[in-house]
């Protein structure tokens, strides 16, 4: 039922909703959930009436309550756990079908579910890399919020931030190496827009790649 349920229009609406939610969540600090009022109260308690100088650091400007309670506990951890449960169920169903197929001695189901298992493993790898890249930074944020007296080495913070940025570069690489259709599309884009090859050359390159695989 996938083709009847996941239509291009529904896919476009889902993608648009993801972007809208991302913008709202990401721009929440600009709507007022930040450390500006805390800094002003501190300034008033100190009896200073001059303009305060804000230290240019992420933790100085962004509220850790926002990062932990709203960002992590609402928009990162629950979806991550939900996706984990979904993938476990997907793998369970595929393996059940593969076992049925072995007993029926049918080659087509074996090929179909084997392909589905490979794709599921690729997407699970993307999920694993996401967790590996983002959880360290969120754990450090939790330490900063719940244990203010604890000092974390700056090098750990820099590594955690680097991992979150590097995660954006991991997904295309995983898709290209693990999923043939993505690899073919990336080759077409590369040849057309970076190597300035004609459509004929693109078709030839794509055909050669498919034959080689």
Automatic annotation (TrEMBL):
Protein function: Receptor for adenosine. The activity of this receptor is mediated by G proteins which inhibit adenylyl cyclase.
Gene3D superfamilies for the chain: Rhodopsin 7-helix transmembrane proteins
Similarity comment: Belongs to the G-protein coupled receptor 1 family.
PROSITE patterns, per the entry: G_PROTEIN_RECEP_F1_2
Topological category with respect to the lipid bilayer: Multi-pass membrane protein
One GO term describing the cellular component: plasma membrane
Signal sequence interval, chain numbering: none
Domain G-protein coupled receptors family 1 profile: 1-175
Subcellular location(s) per record: Cell membrane
Main location (coarse class): membrane
Membrane-crossing segments per the record: 12-33, 72-94, 123-146, 158-177
GO molecular-function terms, A-Z: G protein-coupled adenosine receptor activity
This protein's UniProt keywords: Cell membrane, Disulfide bond, G-protein coupled receptor, Glycoprotein, Lipoprotein, Membrane, Palmitate, Receptor, Transducer, Transmembrane, Transmembrane helix
Protein name: Adenosine receptor A1
InterPro entries: Adeno_A1_rcpt, Adenosn_rcpt, GPCR_Rhodpsn, GPCR_Rhodpsn_7TM
